[in-house]
Amino acid sequence: MIDHGRGWWPKVAALVLALAACGAWAERSPDFEGAFRELQLGYVALEEKDFGAAYRHYRRAEEMARGDEQRFNALFGLGTAAFELDLLVEARAAFERAHEMRPDEPETIYMLGVTCRRQGELETAIRYLAEAFARDENLTGALVELGIAYGVLERHADAERVCREVVEREPDNVEARLGLAVALFHLDENEAAVGEFREVLDREPDNVRAHYGLGLALLYSGDRSGALDELSYLNEHAPALAEDLYSWLYPNR
């Protein structure tokens, strides 16, 4: 499950509550009231991480929706639940329809970018994520996702830039620090990478990706003993990563 502030869940809740306060009850009908109830139940299910139930509630809300407010909420919630269930094609379709309704909504653009990134459509993801952050600079998760996409495309200087911006804003953002460390390693700034991997481990001592990255950065900065310590840790906690680190430590075996 993605976790970059969960900015879309509060948005769904706020929009649901707005329906009750904005006079939309003038449109009251059995379907309107039913959709409103399904939206509420969908949000509760998201909060409880019952994504299957959330999906079902938002699907029913979409079918019963009356008016643009309800329809947008239903589509956004449906996209969120589908994303968490790894139904990426359906999630993207829901977010695209929500985006058509509200082209300037930053959270929808952000989730389109995240979904495209997960689908491997990296250039499209980068375009959406950059737009989302340009519209709302509080969406630092968009920068983290940009860093991931840049890293996959081996645009490591760009990955360093966006991850560093997040770290400057949010020093305890582990994903951003990890992305920064990986970018620094690929830019051959091994000692700086070591420092960032250690910063991650100060915050999450059991982060096996950071232990693996630290092992590589130590190896390439000349600290083979330190790299072997990381290999020992990974042998116990992440054998697949240990095997890969071993291949770097002993390339001829």
Explain this structure.
The chain is mainly α and 253 residues long. It folds into 2 domains: 1-116, Serine Threonine Protein Phosphatase 5, Tetratricopeptide repeat (Alpha Horseshoe), CATH 1.25.40; 161-253, Serine Threonine Protein Phosphatase 5, Tetratricopeptide repeat (Alpha Horseshoe), CATH 1.25.40. Helix content is 78%, strand content 0%. It has 14 helices and no strands. Mean pLDDT is 90; it is low at 1-10 and 12-26.
The main sheet comes to:
none
CATH homologous group name of the largest domain: Tetratricopeptide repeat domain
Which sequence of SSEs, written as H and E, runs from N to C? HHHHHHHHHHHHHH
Structurally, how many domains make up the residues?
A: 2
Q: How many helix segments?
A: 14
Q: What is the rounded distance between the termini?
A: 37 Å
* Classification by helices and strands: mainly alpha
Question: Which descriptors apply to this entry?
Answer:
single chain; 253 residues; mainly alpha; Serine Threonine Protein Phosphatase 5, Tetratricopeptide repeat; 14 helices
What layout of secondary structure does this protein have?
Layout lengths: L7 H14 L8 H18 L3 H14 L3 H17 L3 H14 L4 H14 L2 H14 L4 H13 L3 H14 L4 H13 L3 H14 L4 H13 L3 H14 L1 H11 L4
Describe the structure concisely.
This protein is mainly alpha-helical and 253 residues long.
